[in-house]
Amino acid sequence: MHAPHSSEPIAPHTLEHPGTGPIEVWPVGNRVGESPAWHAGEQALYWIDVRGQQVLRLDPVHRQLTRWQLPEVVGAMAVWNDGSLRLALQQRIVDLDLHTGLLRTVCLLAAHEPPGNRLNDGKRSPSGRWFVVGSMDDRVDKQARGALYCVSDSGTVRQLHTGLVVANGIAWSPDARTLYFSDSFRGQVWQAAWNEAEGTMGEPRPFADLGEAEGRPDGAQVDGAGCYWSAGVSAGALNILAPDGTRQARIALPCRAPTMCTFGTANDLWVTSLVRPGWEPTALDGALFRLQVRR
Question: Which residues form the active site (predicted)?
Fold first, then answer.
C-alpha cells in the first residue's frame, strides 16, 4: 500500500497577539492537526492531520508544504529513521517510507482494541527503542475503553495501562525516568516511573487536573527544565506545568483548540490546532503556528 504525495508553495502571515508578541500563522487547513515533530537534520517540521488522513512536512525556509495522503485515519506520528516515519493508523502501526510512499505494517492492535476504538497520540521514547501509543473510544458516547501500549521496533506489543477514555499527552522527563500521559476527556494528567531499557512503566499517580476553562490536556511536550507543556484544547492556550504539577505559566493562542506543541530551532515553538465539526471555519482554527518562547 502506498501514500501518494504532492507539494505546494505556502506563505505565512504574522499576527500580533497580546502577551506573546508576533506569531507566524501558516494556513495549512488542517481538520485535526497533531503530532508535530521537528526534524533537525532537514530543518523541517513533520505532523499529521488526523481526520484529513495526511502526513505533512513544512520546509519553512523555502516555504514548501508536502502532503502524503493516507488510506485511513491517523492518530499519531514519530520521526523514526532516515527517510521514514512511524504512524499509528486506525488500529495498526505502520512505517511510511517518505521517498517511495510505501506503507509497511509493523503490527496490528485490533486484537487488543474493542470495535469503535482507534489509536490516538504516540511518541518515540527518548532512546528511540519504543513507540508508546494510546487509544481512545471514537464513538459519540465515549467510555473508558482506551489503553496505553509500548511497541518495540520489531513490532512486539506490551499493554501498559487501561481504563482511559481518550489517551493523550504522552511525553518523557529529560532524564527519561518519568512518563507522562493524559486523558483529554477527563481532564487528567498522570506520571509514572519509566524504565527505558525495558519499555515498562510503574504505577501511575496523579500529576494535574485541567478542566474545560483551563484547557483539557491534549498533546504535550516536556522542555529541558522538566516542565510539561500541555495544549489546552478547550481553552485556546498552552498550560506550562512545573515538575511538581503546579501551573507555572499560560500562553494564550489565537486559535480556539490547540492540539500539541513541539520545539524547533533556538526558541521556536510550533503548535498545531483543529477545527471542531460545526464550527464556522476561520483562518486561524486548523492553522499551524510558530512563536518565540523562553525555555
Answer: 218
Angle at 162 between CA 156 and CA 168, to 5 degrees: 85
- For the chain, how long is the longest CA-to-CA vector? 49
Is 218 marked as binding a ligand? yes
Here the cell at position 67 is 502532503
- How many CA atoms within 13 Å lie on the side-chain side of 96? 28
Asked whether 289 and 255 are in contact (CB, 8 A), the reply is yes
The residue type found at 102 is L
Has 97 been labeled as part of a binding site? no
Q: Could you tell me if 285 and 274 are in contact, meaning their C-beta atoms sit under 8 angstroms apart?
A: yes
Task: Kindly tell me if the per-residue pLDDT of 27 is higher than 90.
Answer: yes
**Which secondary structure element, helix H or strand E, spans residue 167, and what is its range?**
strand 167-172
Question: DSSP character for 166?
Answer: B
**Which cell is 31 given?**
481538520
- Which of 267, 233, 226, 263 lies closest to 248 in space, CA to CA? 226
Is the CB of residue 74 less than 8 Å from the CB of residue 50? yes
Closest CA to 74 of 98, 42, 96, 45: 96
Domains defined for the chain, CATH in brackets: 5-292 (2.120.10.30)
Residue 34 CA neighbour count, 13 Å, CB half? 28
Is 168 within any annotated ligand binding site?
yes
Per-residue model confidence (pLDDT) at position 83: 84
As given in the structure block, the three cell numbers for residue 167 are: 489517551
Q: Which of 49, 138, 183, 218 is catalytic?
A: 218
Angstrom distance (rounded) from CA 52 to CA 49 = 5
Please give the pLDDT value at position 282. Answer: 82
User: Tell me: the pLDDT tens digits for 108-131?
Assistant: 999 999 999 999 999 999 999 999
Q: What is the pTM of this model?
A: 0.96
CB neighbourhood size of 268 (10 A): 16
What would the pLDDT profile of 180-204 be if each residue is shown by its tens digit?
A: 999 999 999 999 999 999 999 999 9
